[in-house]
Specification:
Distance between the termini: 38 Å
Number of helices: 2
Number of strands: 7
Strand order of the largest sheet: 2-3-1-7-4
Order of helices and strands: EEEHEEEEH
Helix content: 10-25%
């Protein structure tokens, strides 16, 4: 092995959440706010098709809009290398610092 397959990369992001039963068959919906919301199954399916593995997930409130909590998700995907057991802890630490 040349060592390149030992490297693990992470993709960490949040987006607005919509439940599968409220999302059109495509898995996402343009909200009245002008922002898109995506279902968990849609996001994980697209990422897995691109070779990523879901290693952390949390339902969050990324922001407030007009005094109301916006429902969201925080995803952590990984690709390549070996799964690190402490990845989820690291993501929580990052979020606490924000």
């Amino acid at each position: 092995s040349n060592g390149s397959d030992d490297k693990r990369s992470f993709l960490i992001f949040s987006c607005e959440r919509i439940e599968d039963e409220k999302a059109p068959p495509v898995g996402w919906k343009l909200q009245s706010s002008g922002r898109y919301a995506h279902s968990k199954s849609y996001v994980t399916g697209v990422a897995e098709n691109a070779g990523y593995e879901l290693v952390g997930y949390e339902e969050i409130v990324p922001r407030m809009e007009k005094g109301e909590e916006v429902q969201g998700h925080l995803f952590t995907f990984a690709i390549g290398g070996n799964v690190e057991e402490d990845v989820y802890v690291q993501v929580e630490t990052v979020m606490e610092e924000l």
